[in-house]
Every structure is written in structure tokens, then in C-alpha cells.
Fold this protein.
Amino acid sequence: MQFRDEYRRGSLARSTTFSRRQLLKIGALGTGFSLSQYLRLQASQVEPTSMRSAIFIFMEGGPSHQDTFDLKPEAPVEVRGEFRPMNTCVSGMQICEHLPMLAQRADKYAIIRGITHNLADHGIGKQYLLTGNKPSRSISYPEYGSVVSHEHPSSPDLPTYVSIDEAFVGPGYLGSQYSPLTAEKPRHGFPYSVRGVSLEDGLTVCKYRSQMQLLNDLDQAFRGYEQLDEQVRGMDRFSEQAYDIISSPRTRAAFNLSQERTEESERFGKHEFGQSLLLAARLIEAGVHFVTVRLRPADFDFDTHSDNFAKLRTLLPPFDRGLSALLDRLEERGLLSTTAILTTGEFGRTPTINSQGGRDHWSRAMCALMAGGDVNAGQVVGSTDATASEPDGAGFTPDDLAASFFRNIGISPGTEFQSNVGRPITLVRDGKPIRELL
């Protein structure tokens, strides 16, 4: 019991050698737990039973918090805007009238209001919210999925981290071997394939297998692998993983959306966002541990500097349908309790509507949704002032949001990594898990 406590606190999980006292503890565990088994447990750093899969839904562009999940119906018209609040299935909890399906499922997620920071620029704002650390000139922080890929790898025949649409930040100091497998956004009614996984252009598994053998033979001709730089090592690991994935029926089946019934596909909506969430659900069901879904401006533009309300009338219904279907499906299949979900953007929008009927960048207040795992769903955590301009009180930072997300996944936000700059770096340096949320 004492050994388990020390392991959870990380006193043994990060050691590379064992003292006599620690070895005696290992021996005292009793039969059925060998040193080799302990070493495998030590290498994982976190007990496998504590780890969860996760889905990160990024609403790129900066969604208007006061027109979605933090309405201010008592504010002046130039602040409150055109939308009215709607009651949800949770008493006293209201959200936008254009999110009726999510209103019926408010007991499945928590709203975090009063998130605040000072980076009202898309580029650096995205880096902040995609990593949970303020951007730095000296350190390249990894995005969430790359951390999970490092700490909680999937089976060898599955990718650990899939990004539906290209990754924005990447693996940072963890190294290129923890980059995601990127997949294009699926389109309803069109065959979907992932290059390589789908074996396009006449490439068969047998032919790929022979090509891999040739590469392996060539590799044997070279020595000094340990001297290669990080990028080359990453490429080598990608080659090995690519072979495992490309020859895996399980992976290829997970990406095959044509296996879904028509009514199930339509439940998610006939738009790229809904189909992307359907694909995310299939990947989690197959055993992929992390999926990022990016709502990019090509199809979902939350950067509403003009015509804010007209655009949101188009944008919110697909978001409402897709996220509701994801929550339902994971719950129906018994996976909501083992899948951590985070939905947010890079910042909020200005309290006052501008002369073009839009709202501009505003980072001093924003909101997020979390669901699954240990989230205390059916509540609002935090608040903003009467005009949604800033937190009512201290508020929360993106660092706190990241710490909460990692904690819900099963990764301590205080985990230290040895970076490529030669010094240890704390996963989430300045944030703490939001106590009321988990």
C-alpha cells in the first residue's frame, strides 16, 4: 500500500535506478508481480487504470461567449444582443436559444465561465489554449494530444493521437515522434479515406510489407542510430508506426465511416463538423486515445467581426447537433465515463456590438465546456460581471483549464518532462485544476 502511494506521488515513477529499500518493497509485493512487470509499470508513469481517452474540440476564431453559454439578458441592448437565453434540463442553468439540443443535455456537461487571459491575437491565443501554457520564445510547448501520445500510447496497431484537420502547434519539446496522424475532415455522403491507411494508388499491404523489409535492410547498413538527431529518430518511429497502422484492419475500419447506418450519420448532421465528431467517436471506440477536432474558418468562422448574429444563426445549429450526438453516442456505448471532453476557443468577443453588427476580439472573458470522466456535470463553474466583460472575482486562466483537462485524462499537470533544451519542464507550469469542476 505504501509502495502504491509512493508510485502515485511519482517518487518511483520517474526514477531510473532503484535503491535497496525500493527493491525490497518490490519483493514484498508478493507473488504474481515480477520485477519485469514493475519495470513496465514504472515506464508508463501513470497507472493504466487511471488513464482516459480524450476529445478536444477547438472552436477556432474565438466564439462569442455572451451569445452562447454566458448570456446577459439584463444588460443594455448593445451588450446583450439579439439572442435570448433558454432554460435547460438543469434548474437555473441557461444557454442560448439556438442550442436547444444541448439545453436538453445540460446534465452531461459543465460550463466554465470567467476564463481570462491577455492574448487577444489568433496566433498566440491559439498556442495558449491548445497547450495550456503561455507562448514562449525559448520553449515550444506541446499540444494536448502530443502529451497523451507520450504518456498514454494506444495499441501498436492504432495511432495514439489523431488530429482531424492539421495540427496547429505540434509536439513541441516532446519531439516529432509524438505528432498526430492528421486526417481530413469527412464530408457527408462522400467516401472517406486517410492517405496511407486506405492504401490508395494501388498500394497493397503485401507491397507495403516488402517495401518495409527493404527499408529495414537498408537500416541495418547504418550504425550510430543513437547519434541521430531527434527529427530523424522521429521519422524512423513514424515509419514503424505507419507499418503497424497500414496493416491493421482495426485502424482502417475505424476510419471507415461507410460502416455507419444512414440514420446514425444523419444524427450527427450533414456537415463537416458533425461528421468529424462521428469520426472522433469511432476512433475512440476503436482504442485511439486522443482526437482533436478543429473547427476552422473554412467551414466554421467564429471570428465574427461583422454580422455576428446572422453568422451564429448558421454556425450554432450544426455545433448543437454534432456535440449533442457525440455526448449521446459515448453515453450509449458506455464510454462517456472514460472519455474526457473539452470544448473551447482561443478567446471571447467584445461586450459591446460594433458598428458592423459584430463583436471583436476579447480575451478578458471567455467560456468553455467540459464533459466525461470525473467532471461534475450539470453545473456552471465561475461567472462574469453584468456585461460579460471580465470574471466576477479572480476567474480562471487557460492554464487552470489545461490542468483540469489533464487531471481528468489521468495525467498530473505537475508532471515534469526532460525537454530538448536540456532542462526539466513542468507540464502546466502556472495552472491548477478547478476544484469545483472535478
Q: What stands out?
A: The CA atoms of residues 232 and 360 lie 43 Å apart. The mean pLDDT is 83. The chain has one domain: 54-192+255-426.
